[in-house]
Design brief:
This protein has about 425 residues and is an alpha/beta fold. The protein has two domains: about 260 residues, Glycogen Phosphorylase B (Rossmann fold, 3-Layer(aba) Sandwich), CATH 3.40.50.2000; about 140 residues, Glycogen Phosphorylase B (Rossmann fold). The chain contains 15 helices and 13 strands. It has a seven-stranded parallel sheet, with helices on both faces. Strands 10-9-8-11-12-13 form a six-stranded parallel sheet, sandwiched between helices. α9 crosses α13. The chain is globular, with a radius of gyration of 21 Å.
């Protein structure tokens, strides 16, 4: 089977999707991945063929300030950051991605297209060349649905008439903002001889399946009425080395607190410093995983903390008592998969929404990123001492363990390709 996959070189986007890439290669399938140059090494490590974007912001690399086209962290308001994300992170890729994907699919046909939900142009291309497509969603359900607050509001469900009115209004606003991208989307469709759309969401919803790479218990959007082609398939994790080796003496049995603030640049240094200051003097071992986006040379590291450039989350989280995080969706899934409660300090993007889902699940607490050192210290101690948070985190681990997202999606892709071969013709776009 020939699989054509598109991937954004985003920090949180890549890991679960690469877990699927690796699984497909291991099953003997021919996988070609179109992605940004920053992802080359990780893609080739799976055994897949890497193809670099030539026109769709080819130098994109969110780990560095100078190569980040989103720049939402530079916005003065939450609304401004949201507009930056739509303009630079969703709409900007459509036209060139469509063109590149169509060219590659015509040059070397595929049996199925698997695409990052943010790469809408890949969905247009799949429709244009009449290849069935599966969308991968690495965050909570991203589009407005009745009865739930839309993503990027940072809100949790609210019961009663007031909640209905609030969510209805916010969904209308979210739909209107998304539809600002229709001119560029319809230009891409027009170039491929496709009819224009009147709703931005229709392009993604036309995919054969939309695979949510988490458990429904962690995403309260699953409580709403979702489109029929949406599936919660479980998280997917790349393989990792064995147990992490602690840099502290074996006699030090203080609780381990892992601090992780994303591998993409979000101007997170001030927040990291305040958390380290709050940790200082507490009876814990604190491990800061800096990643490529956080420069640690000028950070004040307290005596009870250590800083490392990188540690695979799944190798260290089983030993942790608490994870302090920006509330990136993959960090949340990884921590809860190991039953570790979280202290969420959202820094932007979908992180406030992710944090609300953790809090509603009872598996952690949330504090604003501008919180004082004293407030941070109190919240760290609270999350460490509250046994209910640990119980709920372990319950979430059971939910997340029910299904391996990479296996589930690979199975679906194989069934889809088998049906296509059996009928000896490709189904029309959007037929389920």
């Amino acid at each position: 089977m020939r699989v054509f996959q598109t991937l954004l070189a985003f920090s949180g986007n890549a890991p679960p999707q690469l877990a699927l890439t690796r699984r497909l290669v291991e099953r003997g399938h021919e996988v070609r991945v179109l992605a940004h140059r920053a992802a080359r090494e990780r893609i080739e490590a799976t055994g897949a063929e890497f193809v670099a974007f030539q026109r769709s912001i080819p130098a994109l690399d969110l780990t560095r300030r100078e190569s980040d086209p989103l720049r939402d962290w530079d916005a003065r308001t939450k609304a401004g950051a949201g507009r930056q994300l739509l303009k630079n992170g969703l709409f900007a890729f459509v036209l060139d991605t469509t063109r590149e994907c169509v060219e590659l699919l015509e040059e070397s046909p595929a049996d199925v297209v698997v695409f990052d939900w943010m790469l809408t142009g890949a969905a247009v291309a799949a429709e244009a060349v009449r290849v069935p497509a599966i969308a991968l969603v690495h965050c909570p359900y991203p589009y407005p649905i009745d009865g739930m607050p839309p993503l990027f509001t940072g809100l949790r469900p609210l019961d009663g008439r007031l909640g209905v009115m609030r969510d209805r209004l916010l969904s209308r606003i979210a739909t209107r903002l998304l539809n600002r991208g229709l001119p560029i989307l319809n230009k891409a469709r027009g170039e491929q001889g496709l009819a224009p759309l009147t709703d931005w969401t229709a392009q993604l919803l036309g995919a054969r399946e939309i695979c949510m790479m988490t458990a429904p218990e962690l995403d309260f959007s699953s409580r709403g009425v979702l489109p029929a082609n949406v599936r919660y398939v479980g998280p997917a994790f790349e393989p990792h080395p064995g147990d992490w080796r602690s840099p502290w003496p074996e006699t030090n049995d203080d609780p381990l607190v892992v601090i992780s603030f994303s591998t993409s640049y979000m101007n997170q240094r001030p927040l990291a410093q305040r958390v380290l200051d709050a940790i200082a003097g507490l009876p814990v071992r604190a491990l800061l995983t800096a990643g490529p986006a956080l420069e640690t040379d000028t950070l004040r590291i307290p005596a009870n903390a250590r800083s490392v450039p990188y540690v695979p989350h799944r190798s260290v989280f089983p030993q942790a008592a608490l994870v302090i995080t920006h509330a990136g969706w993959q960090t949340i899934n990884a921590a809860l998969a190991d039953g570790v409660p979280l202290l969420c300090i959202p820094n932007g993007r979908d992180q406030p929404d992710n944090a609300q889902r953790v809090v509603l699940a009872g598996a952690g607490a949330q504090v604003r990123k501008g919180a004082s050192i004293r407030r941070l210290r109190r919240m760290i101690l609270h999350t460490l001492r509250d046994p209910e948070l640990g119980r709920c985190a372990r319950a979430m681990a059971e939910a997340l363990a029910r299904s391996d997202g990479a296996v589930a999606i690979a199975d679906r892709i194989e069934r889809l390709a088998a049906r296509t071969t059996l009928t000896e013709s490709l189904p029309a776009w959007g037929e389920n």
